[in-house]
Amino acid sequence: MNNIKKILKLFNKRQTAWIVVLFVMMAVGAGLETLAVGLLLPIMNVVISPESVQSGWLLFLYEFFHMENINQFMILMITFMILLYVVKNIFLYCLAFVQARFVFKNQFFMSNRLFQFFVDRPYEYFLNSSTAVIMRIINADVNYVFLLLTNILSFFTEFFVTVFLIVLLLCVDVTMTVSMALILGIAMMLNKKGLKPILFQAGRKIQVSSSNMSKWLLQTLSGIKEVKVTNKQEYFVSQYEKYGWENVNVQRKLNVLSQVPRLIIETVSIGGILAIIDVMLIGGADISRMITQLSAFAMAAVRLMPSANRMNNYLNSMASCEASLNTVIDIYREIESEDKKGRRKEEPAVLEKTLTLENCIRLENIVFSYPGSEKLIFDHAGMEIPVGKAVGIMGSSGAGKTTIVDILLGLLKPLEGNVLADGSNVMENYSAWLSKIGYIPQAIYMLDDTIRENIAFGIPEEQVTEKRIWEVLKEAQLEDFVKGLPEGIDTMIGERGVRLSGGQRQRLGIARALYHDPELLVFDEATSALDNETEAAIMEGINHLRGRKTMIIIAHRLGTIRECDMIYKVEDGKIKEVRKEEVFQ
User: Fold this and answer.
1) Are 168 and 300 in contact (CB under 8 A)?
2) What are the boundaries of each domain within the chain?
3) Contact residues for 336 (Cβ-Cβ < 8 A; gap 6+)
């Protein structure tokens, strides 16, 4: 019941209503199952003892349908049984269809909602998060939540059948039914109490081992070039194997333990029923008069024992899925908390306020430290960037050059201070601010797609303007190269752009940044990974943009910022303007 309460918290009213519909359908299906089993008993009675038709409800049916002999009555009953099984199985098929549609539709809905949640997290969130864990939550944990839901639904299907069959058996023999129910109940309770804690811990271990497997898989494939060059394949494979074998051992344990309930229930049930018959025979009961009761219990046992086994398996599977359910519930609580506080993301397409960029950009009294750290990266730092100027930012490694750019971009939120565009706080109209920025990082993220898609980056295909693609390729000095390709802008560049050189990737990144015709271009050590000749060629192209665009260039080499109009140095938590003569003396 605890898992049911938990899982219902994840669904809205409409989804909960559908779960209720499924429960009602399962009850009807269980009723049809019980009726199909229950009607076998009177048919057997008529076959064994034809005189049984002379009394009770069998006599009523015999007379109601104007039967002339027992054979006619048997034909009628068997025909009705055939129709009942056809109707029952058509209904159970419909139930399976409705259940599968509900589960898989809402499983994707939940995965998509969690994906949206993670994408909308502040940039700081990802500084301390594991990509492998996020992937596991969105894929594996959500799958386990719906496996748990499926197990709950299946459990209650079997539960309804069991209850209805027990009610039927009570009409046949109260003593034997109560004894049999107690035996099954005790066996199931022992399984639940003994196995649930073990299975819950196993579920947690599967979460951890699965995350670590994904982590090492991602790390190996993402850095395959370095892995091969350093000849460390064996190390990375061994790390994957380490957690893979942990996962195998836990899965094996789960599989073995899942067989235990069936073995215990079968042993206890069959042994218990036979023991009851032994006691009755010792007490002098006439076995010939017990044929009807024994037939009823034999038929019921054929259906009850598999039901009891399946219910135990469902309970065990629920226990192993509970850790994933708890993880997803914790995230849903965060979502609900943010919804209550009214923290909804601003739609990028909606630019309600006007944000101009005509005079200057100013960073004012910036105080910043990274989450979990008391060290101040910036202590009341500030800088001013005149519109139309090229501004260089220099400083030693770790001084905070990239950090100040991340604050400028709105990715990091300062503890104090603001970023102002013509005196307006950019965070009050963040979408408008982002629309004015083109960002070129050191490592350009490449889609495993065409040149066209990489430049348009995130724009639906039908909205991409081919003319604009060629314009920005020309500005990025990549036009001739692309025209020389057999498929032009529809050329696939491979995963992470492996079919392009470093310089071509950077030029493609510049073309992407220019596509929306931004007013501000930010180069975050965009040429630091290139050789001097390639860097010089790219910087020549960048310098052609001077005067047409406001530019912020983070320097890795001093030559990168030689042509800048003004230079700032990041040092000791401050940002100070320095004279070019001092830098290049």
Assistant:
1) yes
2) 2-339, 360-583
3) none
For the record, the structure tokens of 349 come out as 């397409």
Tokens 């990489």, residue located = 454
Do residues 403 and 412 make contact, with C-beta atoms less than 8 angstroms apart?
yes
Query: Residue 485 contacts by C-beta under 8 Å, 6 or more apart in sequence?
Result: 451, 491
Task: Name the strand (E) or helix (H) holding 393.
Answer: strand 390-394
Structure-block tokens of residue 134: 């996020």
Is there a contact between 277 and 239 (Cβ–Cβ < 8 Å)? no
Both tokens assigned to 149: 């839901």
The pair phi, psi for residue 403, each rounded to 5°, is: -60, -40
Q: Which residues of 535-559 are buried (b: 16+ CB within 10 A; e: fewer)?
A: beebbeebeebeeebbbbbbbbeee
Task: Divide the 585 residues of the chain into consecutive groups of 10 and give the mean pLDDT of each group.
Answer: 78 89 89 79 71 72 80 84 89 89 89 87 81 84 88 84 77 71 72 70 78 78 65 80 85 73 67 70 64 61 68 75 86 79 48 74 91 85 91 86 89 91 89 88 83 86 88 87 88 80 86 89 78 73 80 82 88 87 72
CB 322 within 8 A of CB 148: yes
Q: What is d(CA 256, CA 260) in angstroms, rounded to the nearest whole number?
A: 7
Report whether 552 contacts 393 (CB < 8 A). yes
Which of helix, strand or coil describes residue 384? strand
pLDDT of residue 196: 66
- Domain 2-339: homologous superfamily in CATH: ABC transporter type 1, transmembrane domain (1.20.1560.10)
Residue 488 buriedness (CB in 10 A; 0-12 / 13-18 / 19+): middle
Closest CA to 276 of 168, 190, 182, 167: 182
Q: Which pLDDT does position 348 carry in this prediction?
A: 44
The residue assigned the tokens 């850790």 is: 323
Q: Select from 20, 317, 305 the least CA-distant residue to 184.
A: 305
- Closest by alpha carbon to 329, among 99, 55, 3? 3
Q: Hey, which residues does 368 pair with through a beta bridge?
A: 378
Which residues have C-beta within 8 Å of that of residue 229, sequence separation ≥ 6?
A: none
Buried b (16+ CB within 10 A) or exposed e, 89-118: eebbeebeeebeebbeebbeebbebbbebb
Contacts of 267 by beta carbon, 8 Å cutoff, 6+ apart: none
Three-state secondary structure readout of 174-193: HHHHHHHHHHHHHHHHHHHH
β-pairing, 416-421 vs 390-394, is unpaired
- Enter the CATH code of domain 360-583: 3.40.50.300
Scanning 439-501, the segments in alpha helix (DSSP H) are 451-456, 466-475, 479-483
Please name the helix (run of DSSP H) or strand (run of DSSP E) that holds residue 28, with its range, or none: helix 13-38
The model carries a pTM of 0.71
Q: Is 229 helix (H, G, I), strand (E, B) or coil?
A: helix
Calculate the alpha carbon distances from 442 to 343, 521, 522, 529, 555 in Å: 32, 14, 11, 7, 11
Which helix (DSSP H) or strand (DSSP E) does residue 394 occupy?
strand 390-394
